Amino acid sequence: MTQINQLTIIGTGLLGASVGLAAKQSGFAKKVAGVSRNLESAEKAASVGAIDMPFDKISDSLADADLAVIAVPLSGFDYIFSLIAPLQRPNLFITDVGSTKSSVIASAKKHLTDPTLFLGSHPMAGSEKQGPESASANLFPNKPCILTPEPDTNRNLINTVTALWQALSMNILTMTPEQHDTQTAVVSHLPHAAAALLIQTANTLGGYDVASTGFRDTTRLASSNPPMRVDIMSANRPALITALSQYRDQITNLMAILESNDRQALLDLLTLSQTSRDHWLDDSFH
Amino acid sequence: MTQINQLTIIGTGLLGASVGLAAKQSGFAKKVAGVSRNLESAEKAASVGAIDMPFDKISDSLADADLAVIAVPLSGFDYIFSLIAPLQRPNLFITDVGSTKSSVIASAKKHLTDPTLFLGSHPMAGSEKQGPESASANLFPNKPCILTPEPDTNRNLINTVTALWQALSMNILTMTPEQHDTQTAVVSHLPHAAAALLIQTANTLGGYDVASTGFRDTTRLASSNPPMRVDIMSANRPALITALSQYRDQITNLMAILESNDRQALLDLLTLSQTSRDHWLDDSFH
């Protein structure tokens, strides 16, 4: 099994701290450093055992690092890449956990001295919770993790990042940044939007008094961190607009079925939805 | 505490069997009978301890009943009420667990000899699972249960049905059938539709390979029983169309925000959604 000496987590929020915790528990990294603009956050991550060494200066945190994982909100990537650029060296690999990939890779190319030492990653592991105190190594096993290498991405970097996510028991997929952004718009960013808009609809029409577990689960993603979601939705606007447009067409189609009281068409639609979801679950969650 | 001698569950599927199980465990009913067109289903409910006495004839199951709970799909209510009508007696109270109320009450008035002995109930407790083998008394505590009495509904019937749902630790609300149908359209039937249409959108645009827990939870209701959902959506068409129309307007509004890249409006929308949901959760689930 691949093992590195030092992993550095840049941004010790829920996801960064969870990567640190899981990398330590799996034995992938002998030591894990964590850096946060706010030292308190890094110290909290250390206090829950997610990292070994808390820092508040990126230069200090990267001095002995073999691999850095950027886990800051998308709006912070330009700044982080600009801080990393003067610190780059051939044996410092860099990856991230950002929820969109085209914007991240454009930022890497713009700022880094050597962008071939950066590989885009997206572990599809999240929670509506926040902060290092909610860190959990259980976010990762059997979840998809997408890698978006470019033609000139360093080969050893790809192998090392692959080994990290494999150590966390993730299912690794490789695709282009554009494919990633199109697909996550449909199955991640659209569901976040759908959940928030169900809440807006209840705010307009009422119904909270009689709402129960179905409403709770369908709207879970509406409790996600708003500034983080603004970053993601804004970074992936074209693909999300396409997904919303298709979703709106589906709603119009269902309204027409209900207006004509076509029970057979309604049964066909709901049956196809049920079997499609159940096939996906059978394939994905074992 | 109110205790009745015999409760009869008409329709021993997941919800009916769960009511039987919880009514026994809470001590509300000394004996619980269960009747199903298919004796095997009633016997399965007996084998998991949800009922004491399985029947396949409604007349037999109601002979000694103090209270009957109708727990069949909505499309079966006309038939069930027509079978109960000749068996009605002043000391046989009747309620139901149907997901819409206007259609159920219309059916009761059409078929029953004495509709003042029927009270519409809707315990907001469900599961995407099916069958008596999944019965659970845990479906009910702290969930809303709506009663829809008419001006002439028998007072002792209202007290007895209230005592049943109180014994199951539900939060009881009283409203008109129309209020019930409008509110459940928003927080129950719309989320079911939203979940199914997210699946349809992924079927059209792709994305299953990278889908994870957010997609799984937001689409959970799409795995609900299709014929049962057709019954419910069809019975509540006008209110569901109104809810879908409002939801579609919300989508159009979000698309306009994204198209103009108005980050502040997006942040406001997502923040309001988050705080609205969290306030509701604080009020409802303790």
Automatic annotation (TrEMBL), chains A, B:
PROSITE patterns: PDH_ADH. One of its GO terms (molecular function) is prephenate dehydrogenase (NAD+) activity. Keywords: Oxidoreductase. It comes from the Bacteria. One of its GO terms (biological process) is tyrosine biosynthetic process. InterPro entries: 6-PGluconate_DH-like_C_sf, NAD(P)-bd_dom_sf, PDH_C, PDH_N, Preph/Arog_dehydrog, Prephen_DH. Residues 5-286 form the Prephenate/arogenate dehydrogenase domain. This is Prephenate dehydrogenase. It comes from Poriferisphaera corsica. The lineage of its organism: Bacteria, Pseudomonadati, Planctomycetota, Phycisphaerae, Phycisphaerales.
